[in-house]
Fold this protein.
Amino acid sequence: MKNLHIPVEHTTLANGLRVVVSPDRSAPVVTVGVYYQIGFRLEPFGRSGFAHLFEHMMFQGSAHAGKMEHIRLINSSGGMLNGTTNYDITNYFESVPSNALARVLWLEADRMRALKVDDENLRNQRDVVKEEVRVNVMNQPYGGFPWLDLPPVAFRNWPNAHNFYGDFADLDAATLADVQHFFHTYYAPNNAVLLMVGDLDPAESFALAKRYFEDIPTHPLPPVADVSEPPQTEERRGAVPEKFGPLPAIAIGYTFPPRDNPDWYAAAILDRALHGGRVGRIYRRLVLEKEIAVETDGGADIIETNGPTQMVTRIFHTPEDHSDTVIAAFDEVIREIQEQGITEDELAPVKVKLRADFYSNLEGGMGAHMPRFGLMHYLACFTLFDGDPNRINTVLDGFQAVTAAQVQAVAKKYLVSKNRAVLVRQPVAKAAA
Amino acid sequence: MSGSNATAVDPKSGATANPAAANRSSAVPPLGPERPVAWPKRSVKTLANGLQVVLAEVPTFPKITAQLFFRSGNALVARTTPGLADMTATVVRTGTASRPSRQIEEDLRRMGGDLGTSAGADSSAISIAGLSEFSGGLLELVADLARHASFPAEEFERERRQKIEGLRIERTTPGFLANERFRRVLFGEHPYAVISPTEEQLASYQREQLEGFYRQNYSPANALLIVVGDFASEAMVAQIERIFGEWKSSTSEPPKSPAPPRNVGRKVHLVHLPGSVQTQLVVGNLGITRRDSDWMRLVIANSIYGGAFHSRLVMNIREQKGYTYSPRSGIQSMRQQGFFNVHAAVRNDVAAASLTEIFYEMDRMRSLPVSDEELESARSYLTGVFSLGVATQDGVLGQLSTIYLDRLPEDHLETYRARIHALTAADIILAARKYFDSANSQIVVVGDKAQIGEQVALFGEVTEYDAHGNKQ
């Protein structure tokens, strides 16, 4: 077994901005990211979709780089850029030839310092976001299934339970003052981490970070929002009509242990035994052996979240079977792993595959033109959520140490009906075409 | 077409400034000198049985990624059995003479492996990735699938049922319906016209037909094996000789394809999707292949027109007008023919307005030379993105497959950046005039005809279809 050691160096600037670098000089490119610890879970109450709309606004102009300049300067430096909004973080990232590193840092610092946008920008991006929602959700078969459908069924606390992409009425209600207020509340150096991975020298990179970012003022941060869930006492169920697709679909989510819980590692291994492609227990039983499902997939994003998180299974089946019959077949798989646990012969390969997937994620993770995006992303999560970017080099040990008995124990503890939510997406009756 | 730039910043003004003297918050830092790409150590060898082998050492992560290509895909059978190559590839992974399906999947997991089998228009492929400590076992599995696939009857039946259900879902997806119609219109009787079989065709296929395609085409003389990752080339060559050396060839002659039609005049092809809350547009023309001497000209013209985030089309209909989220243009090269297309999912009430801008930007590219600044920016973009694209094992494999499948010059990668830097504004206008043929563009729209029918009729004669491809 060949173990990989990722070089990681980190520091904190005087204004509280954390800076993490990981050099790798094999190709003349560098991937840079700024991660803010604010996601759609924490958007203002009643303003669904605001965090994501705000993310779009961050490309609309800052103090010294007006609308289109961020995009133009990165593209014309030979780079690619994007941003995403997640449960607990919002990230902005660029991959560029390494000779553009200083330029990228200048741009990210400029928009961390001051956002310069107007009503016209806001109107424009509101329209763009609505088309994004239409193309990804409203005009697609199984759009938003189940990442938008399941949280309102599974959770009771608004931060976890609302529509993350946003109701159009809420998007329309957003004002420029809301945008600036959100910026001043959360987009502070002391609420962020700057990451640089690839063709760089750590000392030079820290000097550049200091030069461009260190005089951005610290802001007082609001008290940490309460995203905890009240105790669940029974299974929760919901239904959503499927407008386009012909197959009924089911999503089953179990709330998983939080990242600082000792069960966290074993839960990840359990997830891999159940899901993990064609060899996983759920696919094998439902699709291959019983042929009761057409397709199943699923898993839990445990590294990337810092609040209530579910392991979610998606099942597509033919209309001939009632969803209860399909769920009963699923329950049988769960019962077996609870009662019989898993053997060493299953556990060992699950761990090997987890290690291989971990390396693949580090190298890629965001398409062909964002080298080592995954490495950067994990470093950001380990820094913001665990306060330790070096966890990148120890997290695999935690997974490797999990025993079969621990897997069975977490199956019994977490895969129970009062810890789960079930959502059924039933096709609406079609008029004859 | 000026934007609402609060502060216009010229990147080149920074390039001449002394960075130490520059005001650190208001001036764009200059680019440093371009660093050379360190090309991975590459070896190319043809085995005695005809198998072409290409290796590249990329040792950054302890894994390998490999792909075994066969130079036969769906185009070969499109006229008689559309999608048969794809169906064959799908079932190939479900069993061999010595390994039942479950064994294959468990062997993969034991080696940290991911397996994919697929077929495009011109090739079929078995792809594998996994931990480098298991490279021998991973490649043995690839060889087993390539030589001894057994096409188990019940696996075949199940995979076919899944394909049929998958196709039913695709028929409700605007992007699929738009591409399907676009390819029909562009390619007519040519095999590239068909991107998917019908449900009835899928239901009629026999496992013997899959086996027939397999026996004829999964053959070493018809194959290319690319392995990229953490290994020493000499040892890897020896390993490949051992695993693939005994494999015997059968040969087949590809049939001749009819020419695609010459579409004259702008025409509109409307696929009616009742209740659609958005309109999917695809606009385009036949183009050229990578082997054409105009290819690099077209690459840069496309990147300025609509191929990049900062392109004219994206800035216009997304950033200025807010009509759409992800408009983009692209150029595709297949073995015999290529095409140019623009796609965008737009708000229903601006379907016509979006088409107007799509054609306006095409015609502007054909009428006026691009500025020096735009030219320089596009060159930097293309050379930079090229460097990003060869910084991962998957990226290197993708680039190598382009070279060896399309039979491009061996130094294609090494000379790419220099060829981009040599392009001029005259090259761009030449390519735009030849290939952004706006007067003869074919327009495919997928949406609710009650909402968009009148709008799209402004752009040419309309032919209407339902979601199953039937003319109305």
